[in-house]
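ok so for the tutorial part 2 we go from a plain amino acid sequence to predicted structure tokens. step 1 is just haveing the sequence, like this:
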Amino acid sequence: MRMEYRKTNTTVSMVNYHLVFCPRYRRKIFLIDGLEARFKELVSQICLQNKYDIIALECDKDHCHLFVNVPPTVSPQMVAKAIKGATSRILRDEFPQLSRMPSLWTRSYFASTAGNVSSETIKRYIDTQKSR
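step 2 — the prediction. this is what the tokens look like for a chain of 132 residues:
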């Protein structure tokens, strides 16, 4: 997990998102030969362009998990839109098995935030501020 904080002139942050998204109809697209490797390559390029740091990226046969560190101005929706939009277009162009699909991904996704410490640690830190 990324342990350093992102620093700009006005902010210090650590925003980590865990995203999970699935192909339409839960199709097992990652079983197609070469698709998973190409998908990971595309995600790496998109994240590099947008200054997102990939902490972990893994695919199962019918879904993908992405754990990513982003600037504080980026929402989970922006990350999902960037990745799902670009990969859908490119993968449908490059893999004939997917070309008949109107879109590759479902409109939905799972998003969760994660930091460097647990919620209990933060609550304990805040509760003990006056006693320091």
